[in-house]
Amino acid sequence: MAGPDGHRGWRARLTAWRVPLSILTLCLLPWVLPSQALAVNVLIYGLVAVGYNLLFGYTGLLSFGHAAFFGAGAYVTGIAIGKFGLPWYVAVALGVLAGSALAFVIGLLSIRTRGIYFSMVTLALSQLVYYVALQAYSLTGGENGLRGFTVARIDLFGWTVDFLDPLKKYYVLMVFAAAALWLVSRILNSPFGAVIEAIRENETRARACGYDVERSKLIAFTLSGLICALAGTLSALHLAIVPLDILHYHTSGMIVMMTLLGGAGSFFGPFVGALAFLLMEDVVSLWTSHWQIVVGSVFILFVLFLPRGIWGTALAWRAGR
To answer: Is 195:206 a contact under the CB 8 Å cutoff?
Structure first.
């Protein structure tokens, strides 16, 4: 059996190679899952959970409003393409910028609170965004959602990809997911990554050590919203519609469940959680329309008996703890 040094060496190697290993695993998804549509959904929702995990798993802030950034990215991308005829890459950039700006504003208002009050403020502000989208019918389509835009092909530097081909579409979206994973890994490896983990462990002690806790939480909140907005832009490109439900608090709850199922605070856990959640939804919904009861029961069991989630528990078991 490997000793403590062996375990530390194994974890260090895994950390050093986590980005290429994650990308390699995601590259295989379309070939091992029952459908390529499911693989695309795992990629997009896994990316949302990665963004959420940066705030909840690594900074220790429980937000119930991340659907706002996911939806903002999707809506702005769809509006930019459908209403203004902008190229897809400009629309993606605008979607990410809009989601990040919204995250900055909501973060600025919410980080002044703590605990359950922080969660409630993020939930309330997210629902405010939902009702703004509901009322802005001429731009968002109201309760019918945003329609009327389709990206049939991707043209970039003379290279054209048929975006209606599910497999090619998956690998185009993979490029963005890989870039986001690299960014998150760089953040976690930086001194700023150590600061947010210190805040998660003990905010008072982090402040006593001289760290600017409020500013660090605001930066973490904004970066988390940026990645969620990126996932939203990918969702808009994938579906060619933006349903109003993407902004609803149900979506925020689903993001929390995916993160906890996979393992909050673990690098690849969010993708495992998204895969587990969407697979359960696919399989159980074939048997009963009340699939949420089954998924909710599984979630409760995980919270009670496996709080580290699937991937977090596997890592702890491998480390012998």
So the answer is: yes
d(CA 313, CA 190): 25
Crossing angle of helices 67-82 and 115-135, in 10° steps, is 20
What whole-number distance in Å separates Cα of residue 173 and Cα of residue 36?
Answer: 13
Distance CA 231, CA 209 (A): 35
* Chain-centroid distance, C-alpha 68: 12
What is d(CA 321, CA 57) in angstroms, rounded to the nearest whole number?
Answer: 19
More confident residue, 243 or 159: 243
pTM above 0.85, yes or no: yes
pLDDT digits (tens, 9 = 90+) for 31-72: 999 888 899 999 999 999 999 999 999 999 999 999 999 999
Give the whole-angstrom CA distance, residue 196 versus residue 178: 23
In angstroms, the CA 308 to CA 264 distance is 7
Q: What is the CA radius of gyration of the chain?
A: 19
Assess contact for 235 and 76: CB atoms under 8 A. no
Lowest mean pLDDT among 46-60, 120-134, 159-173, 268-282: 159-173
CB 129: neighbour CB atoms within 10 A? 19
Q: What is the mean pLDDT of the chain?
A: 91
CA nearest to 236, candidates 171, 291, 169, 302: 169
User: E strand or H helix at 155, and its extent?
Assistant: strand 153-156
Q: pLDDT tens for residues 177-213?
A: 999 999 999 999 999 999 999 999 998 999 999 899 9
- 11 touches 319 (CB < 8 A): yes
Q: Which of 27, 176, 41 is nearest to 96 (CA)?
A: 176
